[in-house]
Amino acid sequence: MKLVTAIIKPFKLDEVRDALTSIGVAGLTVSEVKGYGRQKGQTGIYRGAEYVISFLPKIKVEVAIDDRDVERVVEAIKKAAHTGKIGDGKIFVMACEQAIRIRTGESGSEAL
Amino acid sequence: MKLVTAIIKPFKLDEVRDALTSIGVAGLTVSEVKGYGRQKGQTGIYRGAEYVISFLPKIKVEVAIDDRDVERVVEAIKKAAHTGKIGDGKIFVMACEQAIRIRTGESGSEAL
Amino acid sequence: MKLVTAIIKPFKLDEVRDALTSIGVAGLTVSEVKGYGRQKGQTGIYRGAEYVISFLPKIKVEVAIDDRDVERVVEAIKKAAHTGKIGDGKIFVMACEQAIRIRTGESGSEAL
Amino acid sequence: MTITRARGLAAALAGVVAPLPAFAAGGTPKIDSGDTAWMIVATALVLMMSLPGLALFYAGMVRKKNVLATTAQTLATVALASVLWVVVGYTLAFTPGGAWIGDLSRFMMRGLTVESISPLAKTIPESVFMMYQMTFAAITAAIVLGAVADRMKFSAMLWFMGLWVLIVYCPVAHWVWGGGFLQTGGTLDFAGGIVVHINAGIAGLVAAIVLGKRRGYGHDNLAPHNLVLTVIGVSLLWVGWMGFNAGSALAADGRAGMAMTVTHVAAATAALAWMVAEWLTMGKPSVLGIVSGAVAGLGTITPAAGYVDVTAALIIGVVAGVLCFYASTALKKKLGYDDSLDVFGVHGVGGIVGTLAAGVFATSAIAGPEVRGLIDGNGGQVLTQLKAIVVTLLWSGGFTWIILKVVDVVIGLRVTTEQEIEGLDLHLHGERVE
Amino acid sequence: MTITRARGLAAALAGVVAPLPAFAAGGTPKIDSGDTAWMIVATALVLMMSLPGLALFYAGMVRKKNVLATTAQTLATVALASVLWVVVGYTLAFTPGGAWIGDLSRFMMRGLTVESISPLAKTIPESVFMMYQMTFAAITAAIVLGAVADRMKFSAMLWFMGLWVLIVYCPVAHWVWGGGFLQTGGTLDFAGGIVVHINAGIAGLVAAIVLGKRRGYGHDNLAPHNLVLTVIGVSLLWVGWMGFNAGSALAADGRAGMAMTVTHVAAATAALAWMVAEWLTMGKPSVLGIVSGAVAGLGTITPAAGYVDVTAALIIGVVAGVLCFYASTALKKKLGYDDSLDVFGVHGVGGIVGTLAAGVFATSAIAGPEVRGLIDGNGGQVLTQLKAIVVTLLWSGGFTWIILKVVDVVIGLRVTTEQEIEGLDLHLHGERVE
Amino acid sequence: MTITRARGLAAALAGVVAPLPAFAAGGTPKIDSGDTAWMIVATALVLMMSLPGLALFYAGMVRKKNVLATTAQTLATVALASVLWVVVGYTLAFTPGGAWIGDLSRFMMRGLTVESISPLAKTIPESVFMMYQMTFAAITAAIVLGAVADRMKFSAMLWFMGLWVLIVYCPVAHWVWGGGFLQTGGTLDFAGGIVVHINAGIAGLVAAIVLGKRRGYGHDNLAPHNLVLTVIGVSLLWVGWMGFNAGSALAADGRAGMAMTVTHVAAATAALAWMVAEWLTMGKPSVLGIVSGAVAGLGTITPAAGYVDVTAALIIGVVAGVLCFYASTALKKKLGYDDSLDVFGVHGVGGIVGTLAAGVFATSAIAGPEVRGLIDGNGGQVLTQLKAIVVTLLWSGGFTWIILKVVDVVIGLRVTTEQEIEGLDLHLHGERVE
Ligand SMILES: Nc1ncnc2c1ncn2[C@@H]1O[C@H](COP(=O)(O)OP(=O)(O)O)[C@@H](O)[C@H]1O
Ligand SMILES: Nc1ncnc2c1ncn2[C@@H]1O[C@H](COP(=O)(O)OP(=O)(O)O)[C@@H](O)[C@H]1O
Ligand SMILES: Nc1ncnc2c1ncn2[C@@H]1O[C@H](COP(=O)(O)OP(=O)(O)O)[C@@H](O)[C@H]1O
What we know:
The complex is a heterohexamer, with 3 copies of chain A and 3 copies of chain D. By secondary structure, chain A is an alpha+beta fold. Chain A is 20% helix and 40% strand. Chain A has a 4-stranded antiparallel β-sheet, covered by helices on one side. A two-stranded antiparallel sheet of chain A has the order 3-4. In chain A, strand 3 and strand 4 form a beta hairpin. Chain A is elongated, with a radius of gyration of 17 Å. Chain A starts with a strand and ends in an 11-residue tail after the last strand. Chain D has a single domain (30-429), classed as Ammonium transporter fold (Orthogonal Bundle), CATH 1.10.3430.10. In chain D, 66% of the residues lie in helices and 0% in strands. Chain D is built from 16 helices and no strands. In chain D, helix 4 (126-144) packs parallel to helix 7, helix 10 (287-301) crosses helix 12 and helix 11 packs antiparallel against helix 12 (343-361). Chain D is globular. At the D-E interface, helix 2, helix 8, helix 9, helix 10 and helix 11 of D face helix 2, helix 3 and helix 4 of E. The structure holds adenosine-5'-diphosphate (3 copies). One adenosine-5'-diphosphate sits between chains A (7, 35-39, 56, 58, 86-90) and C (26-29, 62-64, 101, 103, 112).
């Protein structure tokens, strides 16, 4: 199995979720994170004092999937999260050795 | 070493922590996440407009452990987080190549 | 590639970010987490009732990097996040099989 | 003080003296320190209803990304309406003029001194009367905006509200309170069922329809992000409403006391009624329901406040709570418009019900000998009330539509999709709540 | 105005005229616009103490998952108490009747007109007097709920509070202010040390014991989730208390001015005293401590407000701050009950201390010739005060226990464990704060 | 009431009667229930400006980690100033004494009874006058703290504020309102442009410079963490300012009505002016800008409130909004000090502009025959105003500097770097907002 982690722009979350469910992904976990990258934060001015907001709000989507689904899932996220503007985010793929569903005790692909 | 990640129901956190410490786990990291899965969010009605709360609040527990402890840790989480009702969550096991304790510089199992 | 995850003290975030950028790391993702470990939470007293704050606020920094940068990155974090006091945190290194930049579709080291 | 506001100018000019002992001060204008003390405070209370009352009531109900933008709308509307009021609004609404509109004798408040007294309020300084009426104009305009929360451009909002105060509010206030044709025709509106609530309610409904639904309406979660703010807001509205309704007696007397009493009783009753209705039909009594009920009760009793007794207030409270609950949920769903914060369902429906209720329950025992409703055998009063309701719905609804269409053509009413998704706070004001 | 509230009905009926120049208006009832202006506003101020004052004070101290449920309790209690008050509460408490309870002559407020004046308040409309007293009944009930925050069923809460207002509050109010036996016996309670604070404090203690401790008490972190809300709440309580204590003079006169003065002085002093006591014993002055001190000072001065001078207020403030700090921390821990938001530690202890302090520091120089405390050589006053305290503790404590036990048997008092862990907001009201 | 505050003691003692009909009550002290009602309420309103008004205004603008510490500063300062005021502050400021300072005849408020009347306010109880003035002392001190938000030790803050009230506030209040040399010299300061705003503004500037910049100034994001709190705060400041400015008439009369009118008009106008200025120069109208504009307008009109007409208020509003915007952004940046919450930019600049504006726009038509500004042909008034400004800047600036330096040497002014980074809430008070 693989764990696919995507860092995306917050307003793309609904589209990414829809894209994933439409290709059969049954579950995923999201969290609020802050990103730092090529996309520079705006320079803010607050009453005459300038400052740089270096961390921008992003959403992290984690989805555990079967090995054979990796390509489709990555493609789906890529398409749904894409705006073409800097800061669109990243997708990371890692090996996941085991997965267990707590409710039933099922494990492996069954558990996803 | 392994990194065990569990997505659980929020009100089970204290039980999971107690279960883990009782089998000798010395440290863990938790964060608030939102989950999407078989457990469908309730349909809310707010002043006549229906909507689906598709993401439910969950807690992510991450614990790095020695290879030989995997089974016990997974069992402990499974038992403590179990309610038998849909939405109980998942446990993922991944390989962790290296761990370092920042304070002392120790690494490997020493660092956990 | 590797995914390096560091759990650090919140007030060290700026130093860690500066240390990483100064050695050429182009991007990273941070999130707020809570930690449980050797560093025991303070015992609070609220109107005569004692309680233990067992989870302490920590920051999780995730940075995906090339294999050859692991040592330098780990060193940089270690140095920047170090106070020598209990609770300084941990660094975990995991294998990352694939990385994709959503904006351009680049993958592998190019994407970092 | 001799003349209650709703009987107003005509009576005042004719020098009619209400034959209630407490009102025996007679017709000669003379500043009374007690009445003045009360009316200054009543003015402060009504101002508090807008800022921070209404601002918080609304801010708590929107999504977090729009909370500051929502407060900005109330703040800017109150400021704008206030400036327009001293320049030309007051004189249009509250100088004699004719049946439709006042004259310009107080343009830029010229001639106003520390000694001025309006014939409409003979025991307090005119400056206080003018300010008190200003707070009504400001809150009425600000109420409208709840209907279009989350999607209107700030610049368009300013143009809309400025024009609305002058073209819609000032004439209606003149008709009902400034000596205009509805007042001389005998319409009863003690503290603003018609001028404030129907007026704002129908404008909100029209605006919601012209702007269209919020993105995500019907599938996204648009529920309130922080009802604690809404609870603070409603609480301050409730407290401030003592100034709104009891202040409309324009004196510190038994009339004000009775108005305060029935106002509070109707609010409490309607809060419980909405709570029970929701509990029975939806399974849980929501905090939003309780506070919405309170506002519904307050809005509904408003036109009747100085005319009815406690028993009537209990009845009006129950009816207000149940009807507005129905209007804001089942009915709204059926009709399919997206009135974001239920301006029509609460203020519009409440204002109509209350204006009719004034015609039914007004009683000489409370309101003085000239005022009689259905229960005193004067069924015609209900028709008089109905006429005023229809006229106001048409005028306010029609001109609201026209103003919005013009503003839409000239600068556009609605924010872009990206702005709407990412939030007005960041896009319109460059700020966000952590 | 002639008669201050605490001297009340008996004196009023006997036509006693206080020999202070400022009170020289005599015994004939006549509405004064200045007194009326002040009492309408005082009513609004006391309403603001409950909504949003007390609601926020409490909401900020609970955990985030229960914040809306906490506001719902205050909202619903105020609404319910208000309706019960106009139906039967007012007449039970404030009509002559007998030594124990009033009669039913004002049932459903029948006979109340714009001209009505109560013999208990001869310069303001009865409607205003009735409303002013209503706000006291409402806030007293709402205070009780702090003791059982985080664990009571909403339905049980409604039954408890409704019965409590009728069975506990109305009689005690009658005894002390409505011509009952404590008043005729010479008890001094200017603005509610007995009727409000002891009454609510002991009821809270009993309720906390009957309901049992919160889950997690003693090991989980139950600290306040957002003290900013609590600071807003206490600030509005503080401001509103001017209406509570100075309003209890029932007139805008020197008595009201002195009551306001000592009220504010005691609050400020007690805030500093608690702050210093906590700083010395715990190492840090908490914001919760400063605001708790202010509330302790306000509650403690309440029974003495119209009777004592500034020096006494400073002493009362110091004692209140230090004693209530001790009662809410060390003492509570020793006794082992879980009074969630320290209703007994602050209101109960404060009320007792203040009621005794009124017996000690009351002085004719401030309170008029008939009133003399220990410092004026009348040690017996302290015993009179003590008797009233004991009677109230027994009545309120006893009936609170009985009401709760009955409600427990019929519908159950406490939420389920899952509801308590996951939060009342979601389970009882279907809402949450983002 | 005969004597407006700013004309004060000298006139009062001479028994001068203002020849306005509404003021015809004459010079004999006699408590009027209407005036008393209003002044009790005005006192409550000004108290509400500090708690929770100013506390929230400031708390919303700091970072989340310092929000409770910021409220603690306001709370503790108000409590401390109140206690100092009854002990010695009032008698220093408002008893005859000499040109520089009052005497000690009211030390510990000795001799104050329900009948006492101050020669400075002949229609209300002295207790009310004393309390009203207390709220001014408290808020003036609390305003100063905005300049040093986020970095001052709590203990040092207490010492600083206690000394500042006695050494800076009391003398200046005596000079301008208590019969001191600025008042007898003809200075116009209706409600506190000099005593409150310039005084606090310059003290804030000096304190900001003495304490040094916040860590991270110029590169970290120091923007407000929750402007909703700030909006609530400013709204309550705005409402309370009716008590501040209209209350400074010390009576419920036409003067109070005019003061309320121009106060509100200036606030609304300045809010719009700052909004437009920011929109044009920065591209977006921020909520912070709108509310800052309102405060600027309120502060600026304060010294002129009882003396000018509506047209002048509109002009003053525009000038206040634009100038304070400039002072708080471009100018502050140029000068390079870190006045955290713009105490000098808003209150200092606003106070100076308003005090001059009073000299320009004061007109006998509003202010009575003895008062004439430049537009009435009395150019000398502007010089008189200027003199008072300079004297106050020097006294307040100088002694603020001295007090801070002494406190710094004795206990240190600033928190440690770790405390500043991790937040004052946790380190100074052991609490945090979830
Ligand atoms: N090496 C990395 N490791 C972890 N997260 C990263 C890394 N590089 C970028 N990110 C995340 O991806 C987000 C987008 O990256 P950025 O460089 O701003 O834009 P783009 O991907 O379009 O070049 C960042 O805000 C950060 O959260
Ligand atoms: N494939 C997945 N990848 C990541 N997280 C998942 C995945 N499937 C489920 N989850 C997480 O587990 C939670 C519980 O899953 P759900 O399907 O609702 O219930 P159950 O595990 O009882 O079948 C989800 O809310 C989500 O956070
Ligand atoms: N085994 C572990 N798995 C995951 N996170 C851990 C683990 N051990 C410690 N942590 C994280 O590291 C933080 C610091 O650990 P702690 O034991 O308190 O201090 P130290 O690393 O200095 O010994 C913890 O708060 C927790 O977030």
